[in-house]
Specification:
The structure is a homodimer. Helix content of chain A is 28%, strand content 25%. Chain A starts with 18 loop residues before the first strand and ends with a strand. In chain A, a hairpin with a 7-residue loop joins strand 7 and strand 8. Chain A is built from 15 helices and 23 strands. Chain A is α+β, with helices and mostly antiparallel strands. Chain A has an eight-stranded mixed sheet, sandwiched between helices. In chain A, strands 1-2-3-5-4 form a five-stranded mixed β-barrel. In chain A, strands 12-13-16-14-15 form a five-stranded antiparallel sheet. The first copy, chain A, folds into three domains: 94 residues, OB fold (Dihydrolipoamide Acetyltransferase, E2P); 263 residues, BirA Bifunctional Protein, domain 2; 129 residues, GAD-like domain (Gyrase A, domain 2, 2-Layer Sandwich), CATH 3.30.1360. At the A-B interface, helix 3, helix 4, strand 6, strand 7 and strand 8 of A face helix 3, helix 4, strand 6, strand 7 and strand 8 of B. Strand 23 of chain A pairs antiparallel with strand 23 of chain B.
Chain lengths: 587, 587
Amino acid sequence: MIYRTHTCGELQGTDEGQVVQLCGWVKSWRDHGGLLFIDLRDRYGVTQIVFSPEYNAALYRMALTLRNEFVVSVKGKVGLRPQGMQNKDMLTGEIEIQAERLDILNKSKTPPFEILDEIDVHEELKLKYRYLDLRRPTNKDNLLLRSDLYKVVRDALHDQHFVEIETPYLMRSTPEGARDFLVPSRNYKGQFYALPQSPQTYKQILMVAGFDRYFQIVKCFRDEDLRKDRQPEFTQIDIEMSFVDEQDVMAVAENLMRSIYANLRGQKLADPFPRLSYDEAMRNYGSDKPDLRFDLRIQHLTNIFSNTAFNAFAEVINNKGIIAGLHLNAGDKFSRKQLDHLTEHVRKLGAKGLIWFRYKNGQLEGPVVKFLSENEINKIIEYTGAVDGEIILLVAGEDEKTLMVLGGLRLYLADFLGLADKQPDSILWITDFPMLEFSEEENRYMARHHPFTCPRPEDIGRLDTEPEHVKARAYDLVLNGNEIAGGSIRIHQAELQRNVFRMLGISDEEAENKFGFLMTALEYGAPPHGGIAFGFDRLAMILAGADSIRDVIAFPKTASALSLMDGAPSRISEAQLSDLGLSIKKD
Amino acid sequence: MIYRTHTCGELQGTDEGQVVQLCGWVKSWRDHGGLLFIDLRDRYGVTQIVFSPEYNAALYRMALTLRNEFVVSVKGKVGLRPQGMQNKDMLTGEIEIQAERLDILNKSKTPPFEILDEIDVHEELKLKYRYLDLRRPTNKDNLLLRSDLYKVVRDALHDQHFVEIETPYLMRSTPEGARDFLVPSRNYKGQFYALPQSPQTYKQILMVAGFDRYFQIVKCFRDEDLRKDRQPEFTQIDIEMSFVDEQDVMAVAENLMRSIYANLRGQKLADPFPRLSYDEAMRNYGSDKPDLRFDLRIQHLTNIFSNTAFNAFAEVINNKGIIAGLHLNAGDKFSRKQLDHLTEHVRKLGAKGLIWFRYKNGQLEGPVVKFLSENEINKIIEYTGAVDGEIILLVAGEDEKTLMVLGGLRLYLADFLGLADKQPDSILWITDFPMLEFSEEENRYMARHHPFTCPRPEDIGRLDTEPEHVKARAYDLVLNGNEIAGGSIRIHQAELQRNVFRMLGISDEEAENKFGFLMTALEYGAPPHGGIAFGFDRLAMILAGADSIRDVIAFPKTASALSLMDGAPSRISEAQLSDLGLSIKKD
């Protein structure tokens, strides 16, 4: 049987008179002046079909049985729509098909929600009937964009002589940081494989094997307590290169992003991308992934108050804290009530409070002005440029925390004021990360990136003495305030790797048990190497203008890692459990 | 630091005089007439480096410390090799680099085997040191070919408007046929995800969602008792299409194969590919995946012996068996001893014995000639074309088993005689498979392809009455005797799917429990659809001319699913086990 000669997205006025056959889903139907109009939808578009009782009465009666989402094949002649009935907004809006034959290929129950973007559907219902949700135009377009993104990424990397290599999904469990998803072995009862949190060790080993430039678009798995918009399985563009330093890897990543923007957006990105050190980013934007679609930079005012009589500030300065804030010319947009909201918000972020000033009619006003000296008041005015309508929002407290609070406040204000709206995308590198962060939970230093990250050569001597001041040869790529990629130059010498493990409180025995195979590989001619990994889902989300990575994943899971459509996870049979030599503990 | 200006695979005579810098591994070194020659290897090739004590004595002494597989960066001037020392077989064979600077980037222990194709290394050692094994030229080239194959496949499918969509790896366990690999859930203790045996249900649901043409190159997992050259995780090119019949899917697959052969082999394949029904393939070649690089077709001689006096044959015919065989003009290649070997071989394949004849000097000879009538002898001679030197090998017995034995014998003979050597690749379709096969083990009919395969419309009425005669709308693609792809038109109507499940002995309750989500999807406007899946590893293996899929997988596992390099599977910590609410059963 021939199902169709054309898709629903291609027939135009110039096709008038052709006899065609289309397949698709009944998007809508309306009986109108004795004629039945069907909008037929497929992946490619929508075409209007007309059933006329005068033209073919039996066919018309058959068509009257059609309901939304029925699947049909329709044969008929392309005709121009009557004057005034044309739809200029769609390619097929000039024409309609006069039906001559109709095959109902499948019926449909009434869907639990209409297949329209505008319908607000409960998340759980959408996920359960994901195949219906995916018929909605925006969701469909998101996945088509994602498909194009795969293509552009792979083409760009192939053009740069990267070799695509698949690494195993069933690997050794080497948890360090996040929890592994585990897979029990049937052949070796009581033993387990792990699903990769990333192909990090394998890609390093591919460099030892001499592949020079590797990439893969690959699923990764982390069994974490899910935060908002995390998925237990996610997709990564994984890249590794030999005989390179930071600049080489960053150049490849920039070329990749330029290809993506050129192909999918028709836009040029800056060349090279701006770069900020971690310290600069924290000091100016209170974030290691600042959104620079708007400036709104943190102002440091501590020095103004070094001899202040205002107790709250004096105390902070005595405790080596800072006084810093944001100012913006939007004074009239903040009522007292809104300022109270802001205060509440910074408290949630961890600050003790928010101090605000407004500069209006040549006067600085605000609840604490009365506690400040004239000199202090003048300095504040000077800072803001003495522009009428300025509002100044200050936070005082411990250095790092205050910066992070202001980073959060900065995003809140930008959202409230729409500062990022219609701004060009902002992409930049953050470099010179601290190598370590102290984990209160584990009471030890943890690798900020991962334990294979190379310290800066000039810092190697400080590994034992001042670990907190060691910077890593690591870099993150930030797009509109989202970390979309992160990477580093790796340790390629076994001895340094051993030292770093020790510094991380990983004993030689544990290191050997978990990473012995990598350490051994480093002893057989490992080249200097480094790489980067892009979060594919997040990148697709930003390019699609979506709000959640769930919107660009075909079959996402809920925040508690449930698959509502197929009902996974689920109980398994006793036989399956017994095959694996496992039993389920009773509570 | 700049590591290199060129790779080891590009400098030629025309580059003479350039100062260049290369990186790579010391492939070999030889002290020769006071000069030290190093062959430096990277992914791209090998370049000869010369260290001369007269030119730079300190550098020469440093170079003397180099050993095989050390990683170095060398700077120097490109010079022409002396006359007679040039190697025309390699691009870089005209030149050498006069070293001016040497950086030892990393040392290497002495590898457990030399990095040469010719070295025969024990499989376990190769897998343990896979990063060294992968440095060997053939292995490296295999993975580069595999990388090109990904690219060609994806380009060809994108060009045909397929959408690339990723399906979940953590899905519901729905074992039917092979065993699932399972992943315990931490959030829902006692419940499990399964790794996909294939994305079959998801790709069908993507058709219900309206994506029309889907593809993915995807890992699949089967926890089977591993047969030779199977891997617990393997890669599949997964394709599904809507509004199609068999011809449409086969055309897409043929276009794909033509792209692959055009791009990677510079060869044209037949258009369209030849097709054989399952019944024809079995009858003529004793196999559902016949290697047609050579003909060697099964001859059916049962009719000749319908009134035979030869007891062994008469008995077989009485039991409705067949007498069939192969004949080939290679009589002088088979000594009595070799014929004994053949007999032994067919016995292993399950036959009672092998009967041979030789036609030589106008005479039919062989151990059972004396039992045959003149008419029977003449008929045998007639069958073979009465060519001197013909040998005839007959097997008698039950129909299906005899054909399979002859299929096995056919391959054995082809291997022995090198019949496939230097023949053009043979690609063909096998169609009209039986839908079911009876499983002695499960004492029920099992789906030969999978339970979603559509029966031929004309056979639907026989589902209940003669299930063994129902043919499926299924097709396999066979390349050089390997099944490289298999697919089918799927059931797109819930009611027929329910009937097929019942016929497979799957109760409504079990069907609902395992496949309820698919059945529900079929009720909301499922289009007619079908697809195909290619075994990517096997395809890469054939294109690489390799003997095993392990040769085209970066990090393969052993036959018992061990990863010898990283030592997976392994014991996990008590904390990990306890997180999952599992305990390991004692024997």
